[in-house]
Structure formats: structure tokens, C-alpha cells
Design brief:
Blueprint: H1 2-34, H2 44-70, H3 79-99, H4 104-116
Length: 122
């Protein structure tokens, strides 16, 4: 019975750590965007980086949820393996964004530039 109890505790702790990691990444994206509150003064590089951060976070979350839906969870999964998988999905999402395979960051960037650009007075 103690083994089952320890397994349950480990499972809860892994879920908590995964939740904290996800919350931390969301907080990083949020802080990047909040630093650009005044989009008129943001450089193009800062704006594009914020869009890429958002796209990478979104892609990583989608990949993680798809994996959870397709692959059954292993109760006794090593916490280091879990951390490695998390970093692997993070790296995959960053590569997808850098390669422009989805293009959401570019679309966001163009929309923000269009919507927040200063009107020119003639």
C-alpha cells in the first residue's frame, strides 16, 4: 500500500511541477508583452520577438496537449525524463517558430504594425 501512496504523491508532484513550468513560461510571455505597452516606441525587433515568444508558447502548449491525448501517461515516469520531454517540446516549438512553419508570429507582427502604427499627417 505504501508503494501506491508514494506513486500517487510522485504523480501529484510531477503534475504540480509541470503546471509551474507552464505558468512560468506564460509569465515570461506576459512580461515580454507588458514591456511593450507603448507599441509606438517598440522597435521592430522587440515586437517581432514578442510575437515569436507568443507563437512558441502556443505551439508548445498544443504539442504537449496532443501528446497527453495520444500517449497514455506513465505513472512511474522518471522526473528527469519528464523534464527532458518538456525541454524537448520547448526546443521543437522554438525551431518551428524560427523556421516560420506556422507563420503566426509574422501575422501577429504585421497586424500589430498595421493597427498600432502612427498615422502620418500631411
Amino acid at each position: 500500500m505504501a508503494i501506491s501512496f508514494n506513486s500517487d504523491i510522485n504523480s501529484v508532484m510531477e503534475n504540480l511541477n509541470a503546471s509551474r513550468t507552464s505558468s512560468s513560461k506564460a509569465a515570461n510571455v506576459e512580461s515580454t508583452l507588458s514591456n511593450l505597452k507603448n507599441l509606438d516606441n517598440a522597435t521592430d525587433e522587440e515586437l517581432m520577438q514578442a510575437c515569436k515568444s507568443f507563437e512558441a508558447y502556443l505551439v508548445e502548449q498544443v504539442m504537449t496537449k496532443v501528446k497527453e491525448a495520444v500517449v497514455p501517461s506513465e505513472e512511474n515516469e522518471n522526473k528527469y525524463l519528464s523534464l527532458f520531454k518538456s525541454r524537448l517540446y520547448e526546443e521543437y516549438s522554438n525551431q518551428i517558430v524560427e523556421n516560420g512553419e506556422i507563420g503566426l508570429a509574422k501575422q501577429l507582427y504585421e497586424a500589430m504594425k498595421r493597427d498600432y502604427s502612427k498615422p502620418t499627417v500631411k
